[in-house]
Amino acid sequence: DWSGWNITVEGNDYEVYRHQIMPDGSYYSVDGEGILIQECCGGTSVNGVKISNNTGNSYIGIYKVTQVKNVLIAGNKISNSITDSPGIYVDADTNNTKNKMDNVKIEKNTVSKGIYARASLGGNDNVIEGNENNNGGELSYSCGIRVENNLGFAIKPCGT
Which of 21, 44, 45, 154 fits as disulfide partner to 67, beta carbons 3.0 to 4.6 Å? Predict the structure, then answer.
């Protein structure tokens, strides 16, 4: 879990483990995030991040952050075996507001369980290109994001 601008997360191998808190309970020690930034306590923003060439068993997420711009998520291998979340999850909309994203590139990643990218107010220069899905899953995205040459995904119409 990270925050800040002009961040590079590159070349890591990571494994996330979830432990049930009580034998008969429904709570786990963590939600199962891999590499994550999320809105908290009044908000945060993303401006300048490169997440590349990482290998892990849980998702890369930019989760409900009000400003998302200048992002490169490329060359990652995400097996995503411990949650139901897509392998890459970028969401500029929060619980309270719809937002936009600009210059977000999701390129040449290998994931399981899909890719999700949402910015209900649109944006500029956003692309999902050259990714491969190796274990089923959808590619779900907002209209206005260019989507090209992705393999193995059930590609939903934009905005659905």
Answer: 45
